[in-house]
Amino acid sequence: MPLDGSFGRAVYRGVGEALEQFLVLIRDPDADRRASRKVYVILGRGEFRNGRSLDSLQSAYRLGARIAWRRIAAASLEAGLDGKTLSLLAESIFVYIDELSADSTEGYAEAQFKQQGARLRRERGLVTLMLQPNPDFAEIERTARLAAWEVPKSLAAIACHERDLAEVTRILPIGVISATVDGSGCIAVPDPAGPGRLKELKLAMSGRPSAIGPSSSPSRFLESWQLARSAFEAVSSDALQAEGLIRVEDHLVDLALYRSRDLIARLREQTMAPIGDLTPKAHARMAETALAYVENAGNAAEMARSLNIHPQTARYRIARLRELFGDDLDRPDRRLALELSLRSPRA
User: Fold this and answer.
1) Pick the residue with more confidence: 106 or 321?
2) Which domain holds residue 28?
3) Domain finish residue from 62, 84, 118
4) Whose C-alpha in 102, 116, 235, 289 is 20 to 30 A from the C-alpha of 259?
5) Is position 31 within any domain?
6) 146 CB-contact burial (10 Å; exposed 0-12 / middle 13-18 / buried 19+)
7) How far apart are CA 232 and CA 29, in angstroms?
8) pTM (two decimals)
């Protein structure tokens, strides 16, 4: 970048002050340079705030060092200094310029950190807003502009452990925003049905228990989050057996059972009463047989295949089921109740 405009003027001032301060340090190596340090920290901050890298500023420092060295070398030769002293001066000035660069790098990083902190606060505020019941879309758009986030047509919520949130948001696709909600990580994913999106998300969440809700509009993000949160809780409590990122829509039956677990527990007590007095081993065997019975509509051959037993053994078990459950096996409503009880995690 040319050394013109406000940037050039600031650099020229900085180089001039650097030269003056260097001469002060030559005379007094113990001189306090805290005040001059501030100049180069501020220059670093300014580069970040103006959307530039440190390359131009550091190039200007190197140019300033060469100019300063030529002037100091000329003056030193006129003063009759020997080669060893000149060599020490050269080394000192370039070490000093490295210190200035470090000061500016510190200022740059500080400004970057502050901006990232402000951006993260705005993103958290935006997620919190979208999690309100019936949020105003105009307010979502206004808050999104402040967070420099483009409001998508569709998005989905991912629920995960809070401890995983910071790490996964660094590797998730650009455009995701996140917040901690009631102790869990909440991630808003734009365009969740886009090409390759699910594969990308699963790779990022690999090995971390998590769930992604259905696609929704920004105004209905709460619905996606509630389903994702329920599925994540089901996985975390081992009520749902799965690894990594799961799609809520792939587990709707299991999730419906989990969300109705109090009712299912009462239903289980009622429907499983006929085998309640059996030994644990016999209870497990008859529960397995009953589920195979309702899944295969009582077909002994199909039951034998699903249970990996002989068809005659399947017919014997069916007879035993009828002894225990009686006419309930012929009533559609009771068969449904039996299947719900047997499919629930605690069956």
Assistant:
1) 321
2) 5-118
3) 118
4) 289
5) yes
6) middle
7) 62
8) 0.62
